[in-house]
Design brief:
Layout: E1 3-9, H1 14-32, E2 40-46, E3 52-53, E4 56-57, H2 58-61, E5 66-73, H3 79-97, E6 105-111, E7 117-118, E8 121-122, H4 123-130
Parallel strand pairs: 1-2, 5-6
Antiparallel strand pairs: 1-5, 3-4, 7-8
Helix pairs in contact: 1-3
């Protein structure tokens, strides 16, 4: 926990994929306080001619973009931590990709503990067992 999905504009690049995963993992650990052993990351690429912002493709705009969704257990991070995470992810991916369109999004999804889990157990169950 957490689960991260990263969409990057362009064609798949192994080095960029690795750098994006490392940046997301590092920031998830350092800002949100999550353990690396349970951080799962999936990366998908979307061709620039298939990613549209304001009705125009990124290809037409000569821009790059990204979208990062991260699911965390509700009430495990403060508003300030989430705001810092969003700010620092944006900065890191702007540096990685270059020419990033402002409409690149970071979405911290607060999932209810009773409705979110891994390994067949909810986070609520894990919390109760640990307490």
């Amino acid at each position: 926990m957490p689960h991260i999905v990263i969409h990057l504009s362009g064609q798949p690049e192994a080095a960029l994929t690795r750098e994006a995963v490392q940046a997301a993992t590092r920031l998830t650990q350092s800002i949100l306080g999550k353990e690396e052993r349970v951080i799962a990351v999936a990366v998908q690429y979307v061709p620039k001619d298939q990613w549209f912002i304001g009705g125009r493709s990124l290809e037409e705009q000569g821009a790059n973009a990204f979208h990062l969704d991260i699911s965390v257990t509700d009430e495990t991070n403060t508003k300030a931590e989430k705001a810092r995470f969003i700010r620092e992810v944006y900065a890191a991916f702007k540096e990685l990709l270059g020419g990033v369109h402002e409409c690149s999004y970071v979405h911290v999804i607060d999932a209810r503990a009773a409705a979110y889990g891994y390994g067949g157990a909810t986070q609520e169950y894990r919390h109760q067992r640990a307490g």
